[in-house]
Design goal:
The protein contains five helices and five strands. It has 135 residues and is of the alpha+beta class. The chain has a single domain (3-122), classed as Cytidine Deaminase, domain 2 (3-Layer(aba) Sandwich). A five-stranded mixed sheet has the order 2-1-3-4-5. The protein starts with a helix and ends with a helix. The protein binds tetrahydrodeoxyuridine. Tetrahydrodeoxyuridine binds at residues 23, 26, 28, 30, 46, 48, 55, 57-59, 87-88, 91.
């Protein structure tokens, strides 16, 4: 599949997931889709809770689904919101755990690509495994 087709497919999957978001408190739905290096796609939505801090973001749901399926390398992740919002700091850190070169597509619900970036651009000088191993 050509790179632009894959990008469109990933954004489409994130937009489909967006419809299932559970966001009754903020009314801010988010859909995500992550492309593993074997070509498999895992989607995610934000899931809010009446105990607000228990909310989890769409990006982390997608990544955790992929990781629990045994995938740890990701080519790209697409994030869809109504206004092209960017991933929060916690999600950037979780993305960084699995690779700084992962491409991040930020799109809106009309399917418009707002921004193409990478995890390293979103989280420069990220704390990682290497920091724990330095003596
Ligand atoms: N949210 C995400 O799903 N991803 C982000 O990166 C930013 C925020 C969700 C969490 C919450 O359900 C709603 O958006 C408003 O913060």
């Amino acid at each position: 599949m050509a790179a632009n087709e894959m990008r469109e497919k990933l954004i489409e999957k994130a937009a489909e997931a967006y419809q299932k978001a559970h966001a009754p408190y903020s009314n801010y739905s988010v859909g995500a889709a992550v492309l593993a290096d074997d070509g498999e796609i895992y989607d995610g939505i934000n899931i809010e809770n009446a105990v607000y801090p228990l909310t989890i973001c769409a990006e982390r749901v997608a990544i955790f689904k992929a990781v629990s399926a045994g995938k740890k390398k990701f080519k790209a992740i697409a994030v869809v919101t109504k206004n092209g919002g960017t991933p929060c700091g916690s999600c950037r850190q979780v993305m960084a755990e699995f690779g700084l070169d992962t491409v991040v597509y930020i799109a809106d619900t009309s399917g418009k690509l707002i921004q193409t970036t990478t995890v390293s651009e979103l989280l420069p000088n990220a704390f990682g495994e290497g920091d724990l191993n330095e003596s």
